[in-house]
Amino acid sequence: MLPIISTIPLRQMASGDVLSLQVYKFIGQNPGKKVYIQSNLHGAEIVGNAVIHQLIEFLTTLNNTDLIGEIWLLPVCNPMGTNQRSHHFSSGRHCAYEAKDWNRIFWDYEKDISQSNQSEENQLLSFAKSQLDLNVEEIRTNFLNAIKQQFLKVSDKINSGIGIPYTEKLRYKLQSLSLDADYLIDIHSSTNQGLNYLYYFNNREESAKYFLLDFGILLDEYDGDAFDEAFIKPWLALEECFEQLGRTIQFNVEAWTLELGRGMEMIPDSVNKGVEGIKNYLKQKGILSQYFELDNIPELNSEMNFKTKSKATKYYATVGGMIQSRIALGAEVKAGEKLYQILSFNKQGKLPTIVDIFAHKDGFVFDVSANQSVNEGEFVLGII
After folding, report:
1. C-beta of residue 342 within 8 angstroms of C-beta of residue 324
2. How far is residue 140's CA from residue 124's CA, in Å, rounded to a whole number?
3. Rg (Cα) of the chain, in Å, rounded?
4. Contact 69, 31 (CB under 8 A)
5. Burial bucket for residue 196 (CB in 10 Å: 0-12, 13-18, 19+)
6. Where in the chain is the domain with CATH 2.40.50.100?
7. In the prediction, which pLDDT does 223 show?
8. Mean pLDDT of all residues in the chain?
9. Which helix (H) or strand (E) holds 237?
10. Residue-level pLDDT at 119
């Protein structure tokens, strides 16, 4: 099966060159769910591009009867960020011109209607009341249509002729491709020395196990306008509205951020984990036919360790200096255990000092800074 390949112009540079997106669409013989997978939203986080490449190679070996529904894949989804450099380093986490994190720019339907709504009653709650007697699929169709109608107002601004900031155009292009997906996967890597894990949302633990990763972090609090959040937040909010009205509904809509490896490096183990996990997810969610078998891949990781984002603690340098020793990434720690040691040159006519930092609570080291030279107030490690 060969994909439909669509090239989408994105931005013309001062030199006249045009940056573009390229989407690979695999469409099965039988209709079904839509899966949207993108990578490299942050410029240094390149592992996901190799994951998508291997998924493309895998999907081309299938017959169109093996695929139920469709899969859209978008590698290098942010060419501006990917091409950004500071000396030898890829620094494409932020749009330098607008001073914005590339993953904090996305349009959020829930936020949009709450800001524009002048009436006292919650607009989502009103919608839920109007849908109480309908089945879940009918509600999903009606709500998606409402989201699309509101999104059309964004396109009006895009086409107004007065121009818009580039981050707004990028978010429009990416969200116009993904807005109607059932399952969305955004592949990232740690800025630091992170593990392979995923971020997930409320009541999606069982599906999280299909990615075969060792741990996941529940996003019980939001960073604001991230790609996965902007996609699923309206659906989660609508589920809560129905709960208030005495009806329990869970939409078959899921969003995932996979954190694989670390920035600026193509790590084979992280690539393999991403490819195997996504293949298995597609199989277990019914995107791959029940008759198609995956070799040597378990159905789920029943021992997956779940954590909660609000319980995470970030440790920052209390003094400037050099980190001489530090607890290992992935280690379990107890309250009172030494986490790291900073060698500080105080410039106060005194000998250099060693500052020991201890854990405030039990936890698991899931994130460690890449740089062992720190100014006061800079990130050292994260425990959850």
Report:
1. yes
2. 13
3. 23
4. yes
5. buried
6. 312-383
7. 80
8. 95
9. helix 227-244
10. 61
Which residues belong to CATH 3.40.630.10 in the chain?
Answer: 4-309
Taking only the tens place, the pLDDT of each residue in 17-49 is 999 999 999 999 999 999 999 999 999 999 999
* Cβ neighbour number for residue 21 with a 10 Å cutoff: 21
Three-class secondary structure of residue 177 per DSSP: helix
CA 323 to chain centre: 30
What phi and psi, each to the nearest 5 degrees, are found at residue 300?
Answer: -160, 165
* Positive or negative torsion for Cα 274, 306, 32, 130: negative
DSSP state of 309: G
Distance CA 113, CA 226 (A): 17
Assign 89 to helix, strand or coil.
Answer: strand
* Entry field: residues in the chain: 384
Is 157 strand, coil or helix?
helix
- At residue 313, the pLDDT reads 97
The CATH homologous superfamily for domain 4-309 is Zn peptidases (3.40.630.10)
104 pLDDT more than 60: yes
Q: Tokens 């309908």 map to which residue?
A: 134
**Token couple for 129:** 């009341």
Asked if 384 and 329 count as a contact pair (C-beta separation under 8 A), the reply is: no
Contact 300, 283 (CB under 8 A): no
Dist. CA 186–CA 179, nearest whole Å: 13
Phi, psi of 160 (to 5 degrees): -75, -20
Neighbours of 80 (CB within 10 A): 19
Fold (CATH) for 312-383:
OB fold (Dihydrolipoamide Acetyltransferase, E2P) (2.40.50)
Yes or no: say if 46 and 189 are a contact pair by the CB < 8 Å rule.
yes
Residue 121 reports pLDDT greater than 80? no
Confidence of residue 109 (pLDDT cuts 50, 70, 90): very high
Mean pLDDT of all residues in 368-375:
96
d(Cα 344, Cα 351) in Å, to the nearest integer? 9
Which range is least confidently modeled, 7-21, 22-36, 155-169, 170-184? Answer: 155-169
SS3 34: strand
